[in-house]
Design brief:
Largest sheet: 6 strands, mixed
Mean pLDDT: 97
Radius of gyration: 21 Å
CATH class of the domain at 7-49 and 139-234: Alpha Beta
Shape: globular
Low-confidence stretches: none
Number of helices: 8
Distance between the termini: 37 Å
Order of helices and strands: HEEHEEHEEEHEEHEEEHEHHEEEEEE
Structural class: alpha+beta
CATH architecture of the domain at 7-49 and 139-234: 2-Layer Sandwich
Strand content: 25-35%
Number of strands: 19
Length: about 350
């Protein structure tokens, strides 16, 4: 089991750990509910150092990524943070990731922890014919995320230039004789920053943020992956292995906007075009419980009022913000016009209605 550079800090804070993508990661410190609410009301700090960092450099860096990914990498200006999917030969999603455009010749891909090896092998396999240098620097880097309404105020005290970064942008900031790759993205539905740096300064970076956080007159808490999951679900964000996989396309997951159809070509463009023309047989819906009841989980059945199977849940949780169970799941085309369903978890049933995503929108 691997550990991030912040493992000893998490232990000292009394974190409860669980395996995740080969890492022993903090799931909760005191209460998922309290950590979730801190991010919605003030700010939370997350260790997401388990995620991967793959650099793609060289004169063909953008050209190569335009071929490999669904979104447009060449056109956005330097300093852009670009969300994209990496399709396989069948149109399924190998991974969803963010490309940080550091220069025209140097791009950083931050990828899901569970997909680092698969991504790396796929990128290496398709680099032939492009003038690029690729390197997996995941073991050498860490990421600290600050999320919440107070994230800007805290980050500005860390370094004033961080406050100048606009949403979905990235900048390289000097800090303690090192460079921090600072981006204003997020996975919680709140404003926030991701600070990517070499392992040797990740602990001092976390400690400085932890010192500054309580000075900003609002809720502040270290947050584990438990709160990260409830926050991303309220925001309607997909999680690889749930709403995305190698057997689920970008179109099926509801993320057609990450596909730039105007590019001359990209991996599996023809397959995705055919699916677009033919129409989908399933798509993701949001569900909210009509009242308190059992919490649906991945794999729970979506049933019609007449007990016909209409689909399957991909993610579910109790929503601290809404005060009721919520879920996302695939519904078969024949039932798209229905609004009332039963979510069945091992025989325990929840009356639910379809809702427009996201569940939470500040």
């Amino acid at each position: 089991m691997k550990h991030t550079a912040l493992y000893e800090i998490h232990r000292a804070l009394g974190a409860k750990f669980a395996p995740f993508a080969g890492f022993e990661m903090p799931i909760v410190y005191k209460s998922i509910l309290d950590e979730h609410r801190a991010v919605r009301a003030g700010a939370g700090i997350f260790d997401v150092s388990h995620m991967g960092q793959i650099f793609v450099a060289g004169p063909d860096s953008c050209k190569f990524l335009d071929y490999l990914l669904t979104n447009d990498i060449s056109a956005p200006p330097i300093g852009s943070a670009i969300y994209a999917h990496m399709p396989n030969d069948r149109g399924g999603v190998i991974d969803d990731l963010i490309v940080y455009k550091l220069s025209e010749r140097n791009n950083l891909l931050v990828v899901n922890a569970s997909r680092i090896d698969a991504d790396w092998e796929w990128i290496k396999k398709h680099a032939e014919g492009f003038t690029v240098e690729i390197s997996d620097e995941s073991p050498h880097y860490g990421i600290v995320a600050i999320q919440g309404p107070l994230a800007l105020k805290i980050s500005a005290q860390l370094h004033p230039k961080i406050s100048e970064i606009q949403k979905m942008k990235v900048s390289v900031i000097p800090w303690k004789s090192h460079d921090i790759i600072a981006a204003r993205t997020g996975y919680t539905g709140e404003d926030g920053f991701e600070l990517i740096a070499e392992n040797e300064i990740i602990a001092p970076l976390w400690q400085e943020i932890a010192r500054l956080g309580p000075t900003c007159a609002g809720a502040f808490s270290p947050c584990g992956l438990g709160a990260r999951d409830t926050l991303r679900l309220e925001a309607g964000f997909p999680l690889w292995g749930h709403e995305l996989s190698e057997d689920i396309t970008s179109l099926e997951s509801g993320y057609s906007w990450v596909i730039n159809w105007n590019k001359p070509s990209f991996k599996s463009k023809n397959i995705l075009e055919r699916q677009k023309q033919a129409g989908l047989s399933r798509k993701i819906f949001g569900f909210a419980g009509a009242s308190a009841g059992p919490v649906p989980r991945q794999g729970s059945l979506i049933l019609t009022k007449s007990a016909q199977k209409a689909g399957i849940i991909t993610s579910g949780s109790f929503s601290p913000t809404l005060g009721k169970p919520i879920a996302m799941g695939f519904v078969d085309k024949a039932y798209w016009n229905e609004t009332n369903f039963i979510l069945d978890t091992g025989g325990r049933q929840l009356q639910a209605q379809t809702v427009k995503l996201p569940f939470y929108n500040k």
